[in-house]
Amino acid sequence: MAKTAKVRRARRPDVRLPPLAPWRGGALEPDGDYDGARFEGLDLSGQDAGGARFMDCTLADCALDELRLTRSRLLDCLLTAPRGVGTRLAEATLRDVEVVDARLGGTQVHGAVLERVVIRGGKIDYPNFRAARLKDVVFEGCVLVEPDFGGARLERVEFPDCTLKGVDFSGATLADVDLRGTAVLDVARGVDRMSGAVISPGQLLDLAPVFAAQMGVRVVEG
Questions:
Q1: Which UniProt key words apply to this protein (predicted)?
Q2: Which of 148, 193, 204, 221 is most buried, taking the most CB atoms under 10 A from its CB?
Q3: What is the pLDDT of residue 4?
């Protein structure tokens, strides 16, 4: 009897923050350096922190509408209840980061690098992960509406208790992507790129019409 292939699990971040100082420095700046700061209850909408570095920081209950974080680096950070539309994280680096109870829409994460990241709870509408690299990333108990992973690379990525609506894997590369624990798995595009993903027998039955359509097979009652 053949052995079942083992799925490599994602390595989760271990975020241990030092005592933090409340941020009282005004607006964020491009290429700024923020170390050990606590951003709490702030409206950061429309600010430009492109290329900035955030290390050992926490953002709690902050508004992030149109906040520009392009090519920024978030290292050993905790984001709690972030909210906003159009937050820009294109080509950013997130390493050892936890995001809890996000309420985001249209977040731009294309070309970004995520490593040892947990996104827990909340709802993210229309996130753009195109051409991003995700390694050791866990989406846990959250709702993702039409997430776009087109051309992205996902390695050791898990989705326990998540709802995935209209996910797009077009052109993506998957390795040890565990979809078995999803509450809802709705693949809109890119089912042909799911080699490297792991699904349950029940999910296989649910996805059978999508797989058949991809292969050009018509299912007709006799």
A1: Repeat
A2: 148
A3: 54
- How far apart, in whole angstroms, are the C-alpha atoms of residue 50 and residue 212? 44
- Using CA atoms, how far residue 11 sits from 31, 78, 118, 136, 211, in Å, is 29, 17, 10, 5, 31
Instruction: Please name the residue that has the structure tokens 């920081």.
Output: 57
Residue 50 CA to residue 36 CA, distance in Å, equals 19
**Cα–Cα distance between 210 and 85 in angstroms, integer?**
31
pTM across the whole model: 0.91
Tell me the CA distances in angstroms from 186 to 60, 108, 145, 176, one per residue in order. 31, 21, 10, 19
- Identify any residues that bridge with 22 across adjacent strands, giving them in sequence order: 38
Residues of the chain with pLDDT under 70: 1-5, 208, 212, 215, 217-220, 222
Q: Which pLDDT score is estimated for 57?
A: 97
Rounded distance, CA 57 to CA 37, Å?
5
pLDDT of residue 219: 67
**Burial class of residue 16, CB neighbours in 10 A (0-12, 13-18, 19+):** exposed
> What's the rounded Cα separation, in Å, for the pair 148 and 128?
5
Find, among 110, 122, 188, 196, the residue nearest to 156 by Cα. Answer: 196
